[in-house]
Fold these 3 entries.
Entry 1:
Amino acid sequence: MNDKTTDYWIKRYDKLNTEWSAYWSNHMQRLADYILPRKATVRTNKQKGADLNDLVYDSTAIHANDLLAARMQASLTPSSNKWFQLRGKFPKQYQEMYGKDLNDDNEVKKWFDECSDEMFAMINSSNFATVVHEMFLDLGCFGTSNMSMEGIVNNRGSFDGFKFQSIPIEDYVFSENTDGQVDVVIRKVKKTARQALQRWDKKKLHHTVLEAIEKEPEKEFQFIHAVFVKEDFDPNTKIKTDKPYGSIVIDYDNHVLIEEAGYDEFPYMVTRWSKASGEKYGRGPGRTAIDDIKVLNMSKKLELRAWTKVIDPALMVEHDAVLGQLRITPNSIIYVRDINRRPVPFEIGSRWDIGQLKKEELVSSIKRIFYSDQLQFPEQEAGDMTAREVMVRYELMQSLLGSTFGRIVSECLDPLIERMFSKMERTNMFPDRPAILSDMTDLKIGYTSPLAMAQKMEEAQAIDAWLASVMPLTQVDPSVMDVVDMKKLVRLKAELIGVPASVIRSEDEEKQIGEGRAAMQTQQMKVSQNKEEAETLGKLAPFMREADKMTAPNIGEVA
């Protein structure tokens, strides 16, 4: 890396940041002002600890976005249940070679289940639950979010888990490749002189930073961290330090390269709610509802002003009716010329009914845009719901958020699981991989969260409905059950409803049990047959003895 490359990344950051400031930052600031006010520092540099709610008069949008984020988290990445499962991708000839899909092999299933259990435990031991909620808040408000995923190194220098961070919308810019996938992220990082010394090599720091360490250790400096795909990366390289993704840290103020490194997987997950054609930043419910939100806040502001006029109205006083200055404080004395000409309140005639109707209309519209009414959870309903009713509610959520769910999976959850799996396997945190998986080409990820399972439940319900329609026909013609492959159906149903592989026997085990059962039945039939033959012989024995007595003299005479 040289000064030319350092200048290149600074210029590239400046260009992307100029584009962000010109086209997007104003919109994002407006969204944050009314929907996520604690992050309303996109363009406004307010003092630390300042009131960020000064434009908010109604909290409907804030609450609606909070509820949407909570529901998205509970439906996609619940902390209480494992929300993903792992399988492998193999060359097509493997199915012909082994005579089956290797993912159906019980040993393979159990290994993947053990790996996913380790990964889920790793996720729950990290700060993922807190950060992913922030990510969903950004997604609902701005339509774009960014979550970083960094490995933690302990004091012994070994890998010790993951650290997640939700990056503020104003602190990063990004670029897409030809397929619309984010492959470059340049992030603005502010650190004090003391923090810079703790994080990076002292020899790389500029002398102004080193001087500040002695005089002003809390003085802040701006750095930029760029992560990008290496176009010339050789996947067959034997150089361990050569990674598919490059990483550089630059002292932005002094144009000094601080650190050069790399990643095996892209560490940033930039997620968009939806995208308009030709745009790279996303648009979410907040962008759709912002006009209603602004009108509602203005309406509430006017309503508060009207309240003050009614509660503490202006006074009408005839000219020279009051002696001296009019004071209306408690216990004050007002001198009037004529008691019948005392001050009276000025009635403005506010139409509260019209304001209230408009307010209810706006509140309903905002809640509908944020799916507050459509996505009510069971615990928010009066009374208990049956399991079927709960599933219907998740099916409704899936139908409403299906496209968004697909984008979240492809831009956030898939990269997250793939990076975690690869990192944990490289650091030997999984059991030994079965020999049959030596040629696995890629990882195949399935999702078992409530929202993902709602997609599969339609197929499971179709199976149940089909069987329910077939069973009555067996009374007319029992042979119709020959159409149903019950064993395959049971395995498919188990997969659709997310039954763990550890409780399902493999096809080989099932075959052995079947052969053992058949052998036992054959043995029982032989025993039963021998018993019947013995009983038959026992019944014939008296007749045979009588026959022997009758034929014995004749035999003797012949002799």
Note: DSSP finds 14 helices and 14 strands in the chain.
Entry 2:
Amino acid sequence: MPSVKYNEAQQEAIVSKEKYIRVIAGAGAGKTQVNSEVIAHKLNELGAKPEEILAITFSKNGAKEIKDRAVRTAGHELPGLTATTFNALENEITLNNWEKFGFRHRPSVIDDVQDLPMCDILLRRHPILEWTGSSFKNYTATSGFGVNGALRIVSDIMHHCGKLLMKKKFSDITYQDMKDDEIIPVNSKELTPSIVNKIISFYPEYEEMKKGNDPEFNVPVITFDEQIAFAMRVLNEDPDYLDNNYDFAYIIVDEAQDTSEDQIEFLNHIINMKKFKSLIVVGDDSQAIYESLMGTSPEYLINLDKYLYEIDRKTGIKKPVKIHDIVMDTNYRSVGSVIDMANKIIDKNVNKYDKELVAFREQGIKPTVEGFYRKTDQKPTKKQLEAFKKTQTPLKLQEGQYDKMARDIKALIDSDPSINLNDIAVLAYSKNELLSVADKLTELGVPSKFGAPEKLVDNNRVQALLKFSHLIYKDVDTFSDDTLIVANALFDGNLIEEDSDVIVEKLSEVMDTVKEIRSSYEDEKKKLFLGMLRSLAHGDEAVLNFEEKFKDMEFEEILKYCDDFEIFGADMQYKRSELGDGVMLITAHSSKGLEWKYVFGSVTGFQKPGNRISSRKVEEMRRLLFVLITRARDVLKLYGVYTVSGNTIETRVYNMFLKECYEALDKTFAPVFTK
């Protein structure tokens, strides 16, 4: 047994001998540490070999954390242990069999910079003359491009066609599929059945482009949906593939609330390996927050016994498995009053595993919630200012939500000089809300940092990499603005401050590298280019991430990617693993798995304008609100604008999630409007 003292549920999860285990691990219940102890127990007590253990989780960072913790707990390196994601394992199987699927060479995972140019080519080849609505505000047949209008719609439809092909024939895919699955807006008037069906007809051509077999786009790429589709084809065609290539016997699935139907079917292949011994599925349905974003569902965790099966290899008969349940419901993170509120919010959901969090800590400070009539402070009119000059009577102006949040944070910091800024976080639904709060904090002199992904086009080192690729294919032998941008990045941004002789020397070094690359063989060109990439990065992980992207590309494909990036990469983002000091500004989605002593949360963006919101979406947003609430250790302050839309009594739509926060704290939700 581990030397750390665990509660009864945690101990059972670590040492249980049951073959199929479901651990419902509530927020702050010690799930991550228990997972590492499960691995250590199998290695040290059951005699498992590292290569027999497969730990699957939702994200790449989560997989790394599981591996790192397992190593620390075991006390030694575990080179054979596999900690990965469903997508990464499926991609590994696909890439090991890429020739079977018709790719010109080993593909890379698709992104906007590759996807949107293909959609642009398709629209230029096959103009849809009747499509003239608002979607074309960023796209025309003459000027081209635009990443948010028609190209994005075509991209979404192409991706969904690929997903549907796992269940039906291409000839059976229609406009109705796109409407039913909400790929196109429900009330869209411009996207008629005729237009959508024409877009669907592009798919076979799009498919050939992805394989690298098109004269205008010859870079092999693969989508996330294809990773599992191709992997499943391999496993279905060769039932012994996993047994012949892997030694997995002990399977741990973390963050199981964020699995999809396809991933569960993939898991069924794994648990039917000949070497398989046990499965432990860990998750919390109350924290399933990616249903509408990634097609996952808490359904597969809640009703796990309906989806897992053992298969008789001789008869092919599938037999349901018997699940042993363990509930870890003790929260060690938050004070009791925060947990009380979280329980009241999530209890409103119907589709859930019936449980209630129990706080280990003291009751603490009760959370607060405050409603507003506007997002920012009301500015006085000219008439009000004139009246004030005459009477000196204080103006009655409405306070704005974002200004109040910033002022409350400043007041907290001023009240105690020992408070660490890194213990404070602002959580919101959208990045735009966070930007608004950031501006207000800056005005008050409070440092802040973004935990949300940053746009790569705003990174000067990324820009330098793109400019360097320009120098290679533009065949320019004289100094230019591009040369200066590259040289300045190599000099860590300080070249302009140097003497002219130094500047000329560095510019010459850049051009010498360009000439060397041009005169080298293909393999050497790529090697030299990647060397320059690392030099430009100066350790910046956002830039170094490009090297992984370029791994399977040919040199000319890398140059084309850089060229396309400037046109189609406007929305490409990168989330850093390390940040500086300051108040954390982070979306509720990105905050999952994190915690802070003080949390200031905005509920404003949780409900979108309009009257229609499905019960399924309501439950997903409640789960997101639950995640936001349970990030707070000691202090939780919630804020929100009362209304979502409407300016009159007849049209006004109130923020239902703000109202539920009021009710959870036994406060009356009764905004008073003058009109």
Note: The chain has a mean pLDDT of 90.
Entry 3:
Amino acid sequence: MIADDVSLGEGVIIHHPDQVNLYGCILGDGCKIASFVEIQRGVVLGRNVKVEAFAFIPTGVAIGDGAFIGPHVCFTNDRYPASVAQSGELLGSNEWTVTPTRVGAGASIGANATIICGVTIGAMALVAAGAVVTRGRSARNAYFAGPSFSLAFFMERKLMAIRLQRHAASKPRYRRAISASATEPMAEPVRVGVIGYGYWGPNLVRNFAESPATEVVAVSDMSEQRLALAYERHPGIGVTSGADDILNDPDVDAVVIATPVSTHYALGMAALQAGKHLLMSKPLADTSAHCQRLIDEAASRGLVLMVDHTFLFTGAVRKIKQLVEEGNLGSLYYYDSVRVNLGLFQHDVNVLWDLAVHDLAIMEYVLGDQPCEVAATGATHLPGQPANMAYLTCFFNGNLIAHHHVNWLAPVKVRRTLIGGDRQMIVYDDLEPSEKVKVYDKGVTVRSGRERVYESMVGYRTGDMWAPQVSLTEALRVEAQHFAECIRNGIKPVSDGASGLRVVRILEAAVESMDMRGKPVAIPALVEAGATDGAAVAQTA
């Protein structure tokens, strides 16, 4: 019997419809169901899942794409099954608890295996025939019981699954995974494809996958090892070695790019021209000219262009901006930051483009002003490599000055910023576990008069220190939510294209100054013009 509330994808094959029990379940495209199979309400099967005869899949089970369920496999969904209560009365339908079970993409469960509820069988895992699984199996792991698989077979099967993801070039190699709560009403999430799964990509994928506002459709990377890792961590998410597969997929609404800086412009332009909203990892592009073209392209197509300046979405930086805007610090005197650590050495950009980009984005966001001139010095201590330490000074109109120290060759990790005003001062230490922002009621006062003694003209004010409460929610989680809201509601992103352009212009001027051993380089002011997506188009005044 196949109940009316069963959702069948395209190309589903049920060999003997009159010899199965299917009700209230979701079967993805291309699934194959043999005879005498029972699949209960709420079960979700991904694409191309094969279920052999006499298998029993109860409520609470979700199975990823390409999994194999052998004959007579039995899943359970109650940890402590019983038919009667302690009173002797028959238990009702609401007197027991479903414990969810998950089977990852490409996993294989052999004949007569029993899966005790509450476990997760990872992507590409193997469960041998006759096994009783009482605890989760990690991705690509094997659970031996009875006849065992050879290691050679196991490795070959893992490689075969990755190759299958690269098959059928005429159509997308993946579809978005079906949520286990697909029957619950909810707003349609923004469907995201992530290009790049190296250092930063896994953090992006994790946060976009966990956000209720977004859904990760697929991940692209040129490394098969990284694709296998993505499968392991996120069963059901499509993987591909070709970025074009994501750009050409109509199921993808937005693209997140986390690749080397030299690739940002080409990939970003291709994404925008494919009609995708774009979140680009920092910096926006390798030149200000490329930044401007990306901004123009996004504006002409009405697409959201946002830069992954992650720190702007931390509770600490947002609190600092609030304090500055409300005038708590008074007139600002200086902005001083230190961001040093041992590594990671980059080969395509210098330390300014790698580390100072964070502090420049924070400075631009907090101060709401742009420097008119910069001076930078730096040094390279590894032959043939970019500068690994640098000092950057930013001059503003008036007496406000900013200084940034960045270094890949420091023995300790430091993430500290000082902001001084004529009323109060702030110390922001990103490595502090709780009190990241401290506000000091300290300063100086200068008395007017004709006294000749310098000390008599300057007074020192020492007051209290207080640490305002700040949100400790992970910045990328907030950023993913913000990106989705900008797409849905046409809101201007906090870190829009124009923000990314301003940072890159400072970096370009800093490199020019560093090449001249610290000679100041002027930065012409920018005038923002209107843009349909809020990513303001910046023109040189």
Note: Confidence is low (pLDDT under 50) at residues 144-186, 530-541.
